[in-house]
């Protein structure tokens, strides 16, 4: 099992594990998950790493069909500027491969922000720590295990 699954079990957090055959030729891992798991796209969330103030890395969790607003994540974090982290750095810091980065069970605990749209859903789907593996859980449980804050994170014109 992945570190994400192990951590959820250890903390007795309710979740469902969903696996599917990942196609290495797809461009969007999240949209692939929604299609293969036959789930509304609005319930599938992606995990992005963001670098702020040139040093700190943050985790942003948002719906896969939307773009992250760098201005919004910077505002949420109380900093002036944010940019997407280099994929290699994201892999090194989290211990997961791009396309399978889970906000749960990363090598180092990072400040985490979840798009507020998650609070309106009965459950959401996030990466389980590898491509082709998703976790379904309540937004409140994701917030608890990651010590996240809810904040509007998506580009409003997208």
Feature tags:
158 residues, alpha/beta, five-stranded mixed beta sheet, three-stranded antiparallel beta sheet, 26% helix, globular
Largest sheet report: 5 strands, mixed
Unreliable sequence segments = none
Q: What's the helical proportion of residues?
A: 25-40%
Strand content: 25-35%
**Terminal Cα span:** 35 Å
The helix count comes to 5
How many strands? 8
From the alpha carbons, calculate the radius of gyration and give it in angstroms.
Answer: 14 Å
Strand order of the largest sheet: 4-2-3-5-8
Question: Per the principal axes of the C-alpha atoms, what is the gross shape?
Answer: globular
Give the integer mean of the pLDDT values.
Answer: 94
Class from helix and strand fractions: alpha/beta
Helix-strand sequence:
HEHEEHEHEEEHE
Helix-strand blueprint:
Layout: H1 3-10, E1 16-19, H2 29-37, E2 45-52, E3 56-63, H3 70-77, E4 82-84, H4 87-94, E5 111-115, E6 124-130, E7 133-137, H5 139-146, E8 149-151
Parallel strand pairs: 3-5, 5-8
Antiparallel strand pairs: 1-7, 2-3, 2-4, 6-7
What is the compact description of this entry?
The protein has 158 residues and is an alpha/beta fold.
């Amino acid at each position: 099992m992945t570190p994400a699954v192990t951590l959820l079990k250890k903390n007795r957090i309710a979740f469902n594990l969903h696996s599917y055959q990942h196609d290495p030729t797809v461009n969007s891992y999240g949209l692939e998950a929604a299609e293969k798991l036959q789930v509304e796209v609005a319930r599938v969330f992606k995990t992005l790493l963001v670098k702020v103030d040139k040093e700190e890395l943050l985790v942003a969790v948002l719906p896969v069909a939307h773009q992250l607003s760098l201005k919004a994540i910077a505002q949420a974090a109380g900093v002036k500027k944010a940019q997407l982290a280099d994929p290699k750095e994201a892999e090194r810091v989290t211990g997961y491969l791009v396309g399978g980065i889970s906000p749960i069970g990363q090598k180092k605990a990072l400040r985490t922000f979840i798009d507020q749209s998650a609070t309106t859903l009965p459950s959401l789907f996030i990466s389980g720590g590898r491509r082709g593996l998703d976790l379904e859980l309540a937004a409140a449980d994701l917030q608890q295990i990651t010590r996240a804050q809810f904040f509007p994170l998506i580009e409003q014109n997208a």
